[in-house]
């Protein structure tokens, strides 16, 4: 069953170019609509399996590169007939269909990174709920705050932008994440100033342990799971990853403790936040690269699509985490 319908709209000459890119496909998988004389444009459709969509979209993009006035749409299909009878081909496609097209993943991560008033309000409300839950020792309330917090989106966008070497997406993700973290800290500090005092003796407010590999194991697993779901189009499972990543509780605790004047524990909470962000981002980058998500062109004059950008950023994050863990584990970082 074909589960992707590629629609290309352009001039007759552009559609001729697209048709030339599809010569290796069976003729029953693509077709052209009659030329519209009034609009001066023509439409071509390609019925594909998700496993083959990326290759075809790349071929079309390269064929029409530098030209204007054409559009390509990738449309998911609910069902199609007749069904595929070739078991060998079915197995091949099933093995490859664990990764969405690069453009489809980009659309998902870009939507989750938009720096809008709704994003800031949701982050502030999530931080408020988490801070209240922490101050009262209510685990269920903190879990609810993690579900509604949108902070995972910018982190995944940063990891995806690194895999593609896309500086524009990296900048957007950095701004959104920075703004979200700032809002959450301000809310936590404000609540800490309004409600100063001792907090319940629970593990959620306990940051006395030293940073170690155990500290990053949870966000590493959460980041890897999020990247797997995002690359496979299974975004409904990201809610569980938001809870598993445990990014919001230490961030809200940092604001609470800072507002209450408990600087040592506030710094411990901040160190946990930074470690979580780096670990989630690193794990997601590794998964994206392992799943074969690449820029359309590895090398070229445009350094945003260079593999060196992705590998350099990943190596830097690995070195940063290794150094931080080594220093903390050997007592070179006071209080951690």
Automatic annotation (TrEMBL):
Family annotation (Pfam families): DUF389
Name of the protein described by the UniProt record: TIGR00341 family protein
InterPro entries listed in its UniProt record: DUF389
Heme among keywords: no
Keywords, ordered alphabetically: Membrane, Transmembrane, Transmembrane helix
Highest taxon listed in the record's lineage: Bacteria
Protein species of origin: Vannielia litorea
Membrane-crossing residue ranges in chain numbering: 115-134, 140-164, 176-199, 211-230, 237-260, 266-289, 309-328
């Amino acid at each position: 069953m074909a589960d992707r319908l590629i629609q290309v709209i352009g001039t007759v000459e552009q559609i001729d170019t697209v048709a030339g890119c599809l010569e290796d496909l069976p003729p029953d998988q693509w077709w052209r609509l009659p030329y519209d004389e009034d609009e001066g444009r023509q439409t071509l459709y390609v019925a594909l399996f998700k496993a083959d969509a990326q290759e075809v979209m790349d071929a079309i993009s390269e064929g029409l590169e530098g030209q204007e006035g054409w559009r390509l749409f990738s449309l998911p299909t609910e069902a199609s007939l007749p069904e595929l009878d070739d078991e060998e081909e079915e197995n091949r496609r099933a093995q490859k269909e664990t990764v969405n097209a690069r453009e489809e993943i980009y659309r998902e991560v870009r939507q989750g990174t938009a720096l809008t008033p709704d994003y800031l309000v949701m982050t502030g409300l999530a931080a408020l709920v988490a801070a209240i839950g922490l101050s009262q020792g209510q685990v269920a309330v903190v879990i609810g705050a993690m579900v509604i917090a949108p902070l995972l989106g910018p982190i995944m966008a940063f990891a995806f932008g690194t895999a593609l070497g896309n500086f524009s997406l990296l900048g957007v993700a950095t701004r959104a994440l920075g703004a979200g973290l700032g809002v959450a800290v301000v809310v936590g500090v404000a609540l800490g100033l309004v409600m100063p005092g001792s907090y319940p003796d629970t593990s959620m407010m306990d940051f006395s342990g030293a940073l170690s590999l155990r500290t990053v194991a949870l966000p590493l697993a959460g980041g890897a799971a999020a990247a797997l779901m995002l690359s496979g189009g299974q975004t409904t499972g990201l809610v569980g990853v938001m809870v598993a990543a445990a990014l919001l509780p230490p961030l809200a605790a940092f604001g609470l403790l800072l507002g209450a004047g408990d600087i040592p524990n506030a710094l411990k909470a901040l160190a946990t936040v930074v470690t979580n962000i780096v670990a989630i981002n690193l794990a997601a980058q590794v998964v994206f690269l392992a799943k074969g998500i690449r820029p359309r062109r590895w090398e070229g004059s445009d350094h945003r699509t260079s593999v060196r950008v992705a590998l350099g950023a990943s190596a830097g994050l690995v070195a940063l985490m290794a150094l931080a863990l080594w220093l903390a584990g050997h007592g070179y970082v006071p209080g951690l």
